[in-house]
Each structure stands twice: as structure tokens, then as C-alpha cells.
Write a structure and sequence with these properties.
With 497 residues, the chain is α+β, with helices and mostly antiparallel strands. It contains 16 helices and 19 strands. The protein folds into four domains: 114 residues, SH3 type barrels (Roll); 80 residues, SHC Adaptor Protein, CATH 3.30.505.10; 87 residues, Phosphorylase Kinase, domain 1; 172 residues, Transferase(Phosphotransferase) domain 1 (Transferase(Phosphotransferase), domain 1, Orthogonal Bundle), CATH 1.10.510.10. Helix 13 runs antiparallel to helix 15. Bound molecules: adenosine-5'-diphosphate. The site of adenosine-5'-diphosphate has 20 residues, from strand 13 and strand 14. Its main location: other.
């Protein structure tokens, strides 16, 4: 790896000497030990920071500071990381000789270790096939554009995804003897870099040579800035409302901007008069701590005066229900639909692990992002915002999604969420079809209690229908948990990778 970096960036030789510790600095060499003194940890710093003193990071994108403690930087800037806390790290910006230019807080997902695979322009880290398709089919990419990703599925490992004839092909990268990399049995490579170099010059089966690395998009930041990780009550004046995105029973949702430059979704609650502010804050604090790539990030709330605002990340393609019913959704093949179900199961499995219950899981409460990533929204909010409403206005209860014990006895659990997930799978595989189309809410409840279950939708693969029926087991204990649902849905589309 050292040689590769040296070849790629010879101008950073003084830095590579420091990183790889292979040359004693000479007195004439300004890039040697003298300059490095500044990056040595102070006695107040902990010993693990000392051991990290040679970890140099590179910025993959430029970033504009949003708070006085944060650092602005350009793509390619170098950093020495001092401490890591969640998504925000304290780092020193250094020049190529290792001299310190500035110190401050930076978003960790904008940085990659200088000596790592992550620094390769084509390496995308953990990503599913759906997102890879979103990136490769995006503007700026042509035939042959490629990336290597680490599959989200436990048993797959690395996958080479290539844009070819207006679609994306996925090649599993096998590992022979646990070390050599190969996509076809005749050519083995000792590293992914060698594999990529080979297929840039030689054709892949039925695909041609690799072209340019996929154009990178900046990753989302799951906070407005590092400060709002803990301080999530913000003044309304900092938010600008733009067009309305949707309207639900409990809120109107707008596209908006924070401090005029960060895109957000602003949910304006309708029923704040019924809400206990302290309880609301307690719940929001819990929700704020739930972080997962398949859950919507809650950024902030504005509760100084009614109506309350809930600020979340913006999901460009709106609700999964409207997505599936629209032209974009209608083009998705069965493998992609199952993949969406697996993404939801992944987010729900995290909630399950954190002992959190959703209570209103349905396609209308899953949102789709620019890269077709699916995220569960409104988790936990059902209890604080929606429950009084559900109880007082009986008809509004989502009967067709609710487990029998939730309707009859108000018993909500992860297993009642699993029941709803079965209905969500039905919505997905029917491209946004309405469940129990011929029955009223009351009839659905009566029929379910008598043992009736929806028949398999046309074109629904049998294994998927069997999963749905398991989710609709009368006894909550007989239903699968989300962890095993994710594994089952992943392995269904194993062949498609
Ligand atoms: P309610 O909880 O009152 O039913 P929703 O949260 O379902 O309201 O929001 C209504 C609609 O607003 C959704 O169907 C979706 O189209 C849109 N919406 C909600 N949150 C977002 C978001 N974060 N990004 C983009 N659109 C959103």
C-alpha cells in the first residue's frame, strides 16, 4: 500500500516517510522530525491518541464549517485525528510536511485514512446493490463506470458493480484461501487495487473494460452541526420554509433550509395542544440517540412556541408508498423490491436491539432518498404524537397494519411491529397496493380474529409469501424477529448479487 501511495502522490513524500516511518529526518529536510513535533500529543492527551499519532487522514470532499468550533476544508486536505467521538472528530489540519495549520471539529464520514482502501476513488465501503445502482446511474457517469463496495449482506463480502448497457452489473469478488481476490477463476490478485488495474486494461466477462471510477456524492451528515448532537432545541427563526412536501393526519411537512444553507425536512405538528412538553422532550432525546443508516435522522425540534417543529433529514423521493405507485417505483424488479424490504428490516432490527417500538410501520412511514435508500421514519413518535389521536378517534387507527393484540388489548411490541412489516411487504410486492382491498377496517379485524389472512399477491415469490404469513402468526411469539427477517430477505436475493 505504501508504494502505491508513493506512486500516486509523490509530492507527499515527506508525509509518507512519516506515515510509514521508513526514513530518519535529516536536519536539512523541513518535512522531517522538526515539523512533526507539532503533531505530537500533549501530556494531557490519552495514550491511545499517542498510538494514533501516525494516522493521517485525507478529506474526500470539501466541507464548510457550520459552527465556530468546526473546520472548513477542501478535498485532498490532510488531517491528524486527535479524538473520536461519535460522528464528529477533533482533528488537526496539516500540510504535506506535517505542519499544523488549524485544529477543530470535522465530520468523520468526510475523511478516509490515507493509507487505506477507503482512499481509492472507486472504493465505496458498506453499500447495498440498490444504492450502488443509484450512484452509477447518476449524472456524470458513463459506460464502464465502476465501484467496489462491501455488501451489506453478511455472507457476500466485496462486490464489483459496473455500469454496462444502461444497467448495472454486480460481480461478487471471491477470496481464494482467504487472501487472493478474483471475479473469474483464471485471474487471481493479491489486492483489490491490482484487480481493478487488471480490469481497466482487460475485459470482464460480457462487460468490457472498467472505465472511470464512479463519481462520488458527498455523504449525508446526520446532524445539523456537531453542536446539535446534544443541543437539539433550536429557534424557529433559523429555519426557512420552502414548498410543502406532504400532509398527514398529524403534521404538514415542508422542504426547508437551516441557516439558509442546509436542506432539511420540517414537520409542523397539528396537535401540540394535547402534548406534554416534558414528555415530548424526553422521547425526542431518546429518538435523537437512535442512529442507523436505515432510520431517518432526527436533527432538532422547535418547541418554544406552538406549533412545534420536528426537523429531520430530507428524503428527496418522498414516501415509499408514493414512490412505489409512481413511475420510478413501477420500474423496479422483484430483486430490488425485496432489497427494499431488507433495508426496512435492517432499520427495524436496530430498533428491536434498542428495545424501541415503532407502532405505525407502513409504506407511508418509510421514506426514499436520492440514492433509493429506504429509511424508516416516525419511529417512536407514534407514542407521543399519534397515540392520543388513535385512541380518541377510533377510525384513524391503522387497522389494516395492526396486529390483533394491538387492536384488541393495546399491546404493542416488536412482534406487533413484525405483523405490520408483513403488511408492508405486501405493499412493496404489489407496488403500493392497498391491503385487504375489499374489506372495511372493522371487517378486517373480525376476519383476522377468525384466522383469515390475505392470499398471495400475483407474481409474489412463494418464499416471500411464506415470510409474510409467518409475520401474521396469531401468537406474537411465533412471529420471526427483525434480525432473522433481514437475514432471510438478504439470502433471498443472494443469487442476484
Ligand atoms: P403524518 O405523520 O402526519 O402522517 P408524515 O410524516 O407521514 O405525516 O408526512 C406526510 C408526507 O410528507 C409523507 O408522506 C411524505 O410525502 C412527506 N415527508 C415526510 N417526511 C419527509 C422527509 N423527511 N423528507 C421528504 N418528505 C417527507
Amino acid at each position: 500500500m505504501g508504494e502505491c501511495l508513493r506512486r500516486a502522490c509523490p509530492c507527499l513524500e515527506p508525509l509518507w516517510q512519516r506515515v510509514f516511518n521508513d526514513k530518519k529526518p535529516s536536519p536539512e529536510d523541513p518535512g522531517g522530525g522538526g515539523a512533526v513535533v507539532q503533531t505530537e500529543p500533549s501530556p494531557a492527551q490519552t495514550s491511545d491518541r499517542v498510538s494514533e499519532s501516525s494516522s493521517i487522514y485525507t478529506a474526500l470532499w470539501s466541507f464548510e464549517a457550520r459552527h465556530q468550533d468546526e473546520l472548513s476544508f477542501q478535498e485532498g486536505d490532510l488531517f491528524c485525528v486527535l479524538s473520536r467521538s461519535g460522528d464528529w472528530w477533533t482533528a488537526r489540519k496539516i500540510d504535506k510536511n506535517g505542519r499544523v495549520l488549524d485544529t477543530g471539529i470535522v465530520p468523520n464520514n468526510y475523511l478516509a485514512r490515507a493509507e487505506s482502501l477507503e482512499m481509492q476513488p472507486w472504493f465505496y465501503g458498506k453499500m447495498n446493490r440498490f444504492e450502488a445502482q443509484g450512484h452509477l446511474m447518476g449524472p456524470g457517469n458513463e459506460e464502464g463506470a465502476f465501484l467496489i463496495r462491501h455488501s451489506e449482506k453478511d455472507n457476500i463480502g466485496y462486490v464489483l458493480s459496473v455500469r454496462s448497457s444502461s444497467r448495472v452489473k454486480h460481480f461478487k469478488v471471491h477470496q481464494a484461501n482467504g487472501s487472493n481476490f478474483l471475479v473469474d477463476p483464471n485471474h487471481q490478485f493479491s489486492s483489490l487495487i491490482d484487480l481493478v488495474e487488471h480490469y481497466c486494461d482487460n475485459s470482464l466477462t460480457n462487460t468490457g473494460k472498467l472505465g472511470k471510477p464512479c463519481k462520488r456524492k458527498k455523504p449525508n451528515i446526520s446532524d445539523l452541526n456537531h453542536f446539535t448532537v446534544d443541543e437539539w432545541e433550536l429557534p424557529k427563526e433559523e429555519f426557512l420554509l420552502e414548498e410543502q412536501l406532504g400532509s398527514g393526519n398529524f403534521a404538514d411537512v415542508y422542504r426547508g433550509r437551516w441557516k439558509n444553507h442546509i436542506n432539511v425536512a420540517i414537520k409542523i405538528l397539528k396537535n401540540d395542544s394535547e402534548m406534554n412538553k416534558r414528555e415530548f422532550h424526553r422521547e425526542v432525546q431518546i429518538l435523537k440517540s437512535l442512529r442507523h443508516r436505515h432510520l431517518i435522522s432526527l436533527f432538532a425540534v422547535c418547541t418554544a412556541s406552538p406549533p412545534y417543529y420536528i426537523i429531520t433529514e430530507l428524503m428527496e423521493k418522498g414516501s415509499l408508498l408514493s414512490f412505489l405507485r409512481g413511475p420510478d417505483g413501477q420500474h423496479q424488479d422483484v430483486a430490488s423490491l425485496i432489497d427494499m424490504g431488507a433495508q426496512v428490516a435492517d432499520g427495524m432490527s436496530y430498533l428491536e436491539e434498542k428495545n424501541s417500538i415503532h407502532r405505525d410501520l407502513a409504506a407511508r412511514n418509510v421514506l426514499v432518498g436520492e440514492d433509493y435508500i429506504c429509511k424508516v421514519a416516525d419511529f417512536g413518535l407514534a407514542r407521543i404524537i399519534k397515540e392520543p389521536f388513535y385512541i380518541t378517534e377510533d377510525k384513524k387507527m391503522p387497522y389494516k397494519w395492526s396486529a390483533p393484540e394491538a387492536i384488541s388489548h393495546g399491546k404493542f411490541s416488536n412482534k406487533s411491529d413484525v405483523w405490520s412489516f408483513g403488511v408492508l411487504l405486501y405493499e412493496i410486492i404489489t407496488y403500493g397496493g392497498a391491503p385487504y382491498p375489499a374489506l372495511s377496517n372493522q371487517e378486517v379485524h373480525e376476519q383476522i380474529m377468525k384466522g383469515y389472512r390475505m392470499p398471495a399477491p400475483s407474481k409474489c415469490p412463494n418464499f416471500l409469501y411464506q415470510i409474510m404469513k409467518k409475520c401474521w402468526s396469531t401468537e406474537p411469539a411465533d412471529r420471526p424477529d427483525f434480525k432473522s427477517l433481514k437475514i432471510q430477505l438478504d439470502s433471498c436475493s443472494y443469487e442476484l448479487e
